[in-house]
Write a structure and sequence with these properties.
single chain, alpha/beta, TIM Barrel, 10 helices, 8 strands, 15% strand, globular
């Protein structure tokens, strides 16, 4: 019997783009058409929070919606903050937490852990970003990733981990050419390592089940090798997710594997 094809998750993180709601609607319309023709791929887009409700309202489920971040508090006098329950009510099903850009702005591990807890409590699925700033010859970077994962899931019940996706995002590799960054073999090894960390905290079943995505300067050229040989569950894509043709090519390639 022929083995079933692997199902990938491809997440587009739009960051603070595009500039207007109309532009966002146009980009989403293209993504939906691509996603409908790629049944083996779960496509998730994470637009700016102010666009989530307008984009998700009345839409078919060809594309899932996520927030790019949530606050570590549920409600209160916190000007500018957006809670997990608020983005959930706006139509989001997922949220990214712990992205390297948020960590650079002060989200230490304890803050990430609180955000993860509130997100799960609100009924969101969490895309947890982890990754080292630099690599060293003594493999201390492995300890960094381990501490990020264990801290992030320290406040949640084991059952909540069924809604966890981990995105490995080596900060040092962002912006580099693929030849000087990580090979698919390196990425595969990190996926195994991350699953072992989850297993350490929650048991072998949860460790094996946890999807691990890769994020780090993804384009169509390097995505092919990562998806084919990196043993990842999918990709977290930034800049390329704003380019409909390139993002669509990645989705179509994943659907064909």
């Amino acid at each position: 019997m022929k083995a079933a094809k692997k199902k990938f998750t491809i997440v587009g993180n739009w960051k603070m783009n595009p500039g207007t709601l109309e532009e966002a609607k146009g980009l989403l319309s293209i993504m939906e058409k691509i996603a409908k023709k790629a049944p083996r791929v779960s496509v998730i887009v994470c637009p700016p929070a102010v666009f989530i409700e307008a984009l998700s309202r009345g839409r078919e489920k060809a594309v899932g919606f996520g927030a790019q971040d949530v606050d570590r508090r549920e409600r209160g006098p916190f000007t500018g903050a957006i809670s997990a329950s608020q983005v959930k009510s706006a139509g989001a099903e997922y949220t990214i937490i712990g992205h390297s850009e948020r960590r650079a702005d002060g989200d230490v591990d304890a803050v990430v852990a609180e955000k993860v807890k509130w997100a799960f409590d609100a009924g969101l699925r969490v895309i947890l970003c982890v990754g080292e700033k630099e690599r060293d010859n003594h493999a201390h970077y492995l300890r960094t990733v381990r501490e990020q994962v264990l801290s992030a899931i320290s406040l949640v019940d084991k059952k909540d981990l069924r809604s966890l996706i981990i995105a490995y995002e080596p900060v040092w590799a962002i912006g580099k050419s693929y030849d000087t960054a990580l090979s698919p073999v390196d990425i595969h090894e990190m996926c195994i390592y991350i699953k072992k960390i989850v297993a350490e905290a929650a048991g072998k079943t949860e460790g094996l089940r946890t999807p691990v995505l890769y994020g780090g300067s993804i384009n169509f050229e390097n995505a092919q090798g990562i998806l084919s040989d990196g043993e990842v569950s999918g990709l977290l894509i930034g800049r390329q997710s704003l380019e409909a043709e390139g993002f669509g090519n990645i989705i179509n390639y994943a659907n064909g594997i």
